[in-house]
Design a protein that fits this description.
single chain; globular; about 0% strand; 10 helices; mainly alpha
């Protein structure tokens, strides 16, 4: 174990965090979007069996990357960072990806719809407001930029391949999953609050939110009001993404989830 931490410390190269909307941010985003388009085009017609393997593989890779991040901070800073507990909106897609092979029917469609809306939103929002991705370590900055671009790929691929549900009921299922995850995240916050008050999974409190706008709402109205407003805002944004995919995929209002239907036969 000591050898492992020594190797991790070797990778802890410090850096001046890249400037939001600077060259690194914009170039990485442009290249990532281009690769997302190329990979989505190449893979969108793969079979359901192959797609399930792809999701599972990405999930395992994300879990390995998350394990590296957790151990990295222990090695680099000498203690575990409780505030980096892996249960944020941008973390849960790794659990969903590894769960997909075990899901069937409506449950799998719900997972796909969640990835194409909430997960895509989480990845895109991080690039829009990249402060938390720009970190003082080379490895962790690269980790965060790659992680959130992977979420964008997952969302775009899932929608483009016809696996995400295009009915309002499908989004309602994804929203219900989000609310269940919010309840779990809030429970984690409460469990950690006495010993680690900085823990704020899903930014729901009781720790003050550090997000733009949300921190002002918290300061004026308290964390409870902010939590409700934040969940409503996230769900509204995810719904708009879902509606956008309906327009793109079904301009005449005909919902065709051919890949998913084939997987249920």
């Amino acid at each position: 174990m000591q050898t492992l931490f020594e190797l991790l410390r070797y990778t802890a190269r410090p850096m001046t965090p890249p400037r939001p909307y600077g060259a690194f941010h914009l170039i990485f985003f442009a290249v990532g979007i281009a690769l997302t388009a190329v990979l989505t085009t190449a893979l969108r017609r793969i079979s359901e069996r192959a797609a399930v393997r792809l999701y599972a593989g990405i999930g395992v890779a994300l879990i390995a990357a998350e394990a590296y991040k957790q151990l990295f901070y222990i090695a680099a800073e000498g203690e575990w960072r409780a505030d980096l507990f892996p249960f944020q909106l941008c973390s849960v897609p790794m659990y969903i990806c590894v769960a997909i092979p075990f899901l069937r029917g409506r449950a799998r469609r719900c997972a796909y719809t969640f990835l194409s809306t909430y997960a895509l939103l989480g990845g895109a929002a991080s690039y829009i407001s990249p402060d938390t991705m720009c970190r003082p370590y080379v490895a962790m900055t690269a980790h965060s930029f790659l992680w959130h671009m992977t979420l964008i790929f997952l969302g775009v691929f899932t929608a483009a391949s016809g696996r995400a549900g295009l009915k309002r009921r499908d989004f309602a299922d994804a929203a219900a999953l989000y609310l269940a995850l919010c309840a779990a995240a809030f429970s984690i916050n409460l469990a950690f609050h006495a010993s680690h008050p900085e823990v704020n999974m899903f930014y729901l409190g009781p720790a003050p939110s550090t997000l733009p706008v949300c921190r002002d709402i918290t300061r004026i109205f308290g964390w409870g009001i902010n939590s409700i407003a934040y969940m409503l805002a996230v769900t509204a944004a995810a719904f708009l993404i879902h509606e956008g995919f309906i327009i793109i995929k079904s301009p005449k209002g005909k919902h065709k989830n051919e890949n998913f239907r084939a997987s249920e036969k």
